[in-house]
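Incident log, support desk, overnight shift.

02:14 A customer reports that sequence design results differ from what the structure should imply. Their input is reproduced verbatim below. On-call engineer (initials T.W.) acknowledged and began investigating.
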């Protein structure tokens, strides 16, 4: 199934991600020139969308997409190769968890700051 992906992805359109990263190229174009993406293309865009805000580099994105493509193919991999690929995914998963933890701390501090400002406004408006 080929579909058009128009919605912005983490502040970037699919076309911007395609141009910036070269990691996802549309599978086809409509007669009107719109980029058309398969479900696999959209899944790749989602991986990029999720990795970008966590600070992963283009090379890391490329590596993870390669690893997952190879795992999804399920052919021609020895048990050792498969385990090595799975270990690389585990490394990315751990890095993602660490970044999420950092973001939770930042979010908590931002929420505390917003509450402080709300309190100051309430105090000033009540005077």
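02:41 Re-run completed on a clean worker. Output:
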């Amino acid at each position: 199934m080929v579909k058009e992906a128009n919605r912005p992805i983490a502040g970037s359109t699919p076309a911007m991600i395609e141009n910036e990263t070269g990691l996802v190229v549309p599978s086809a174009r409509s007669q009107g020139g719109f980029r058309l993406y398969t479900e696999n293309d959209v899944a790749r865009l989602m991986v990029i969308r999720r990795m970008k805000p966590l600070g992963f580099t283009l090379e890391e994105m490329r590596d993870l997409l390669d690893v997952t493509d190879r795992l999804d193919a399920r052919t021609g991999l020895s048990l050792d190769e498969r385990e090595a690929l799975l270990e690389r995914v585990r490394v990315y998963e751990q890095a993602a968890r660490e970044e999420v933890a950092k973001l939770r701390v930042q979010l908590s501090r931002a929420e505390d700051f917003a509450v402080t400002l709300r309190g100051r406004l309430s105090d000033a408006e009540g005077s």
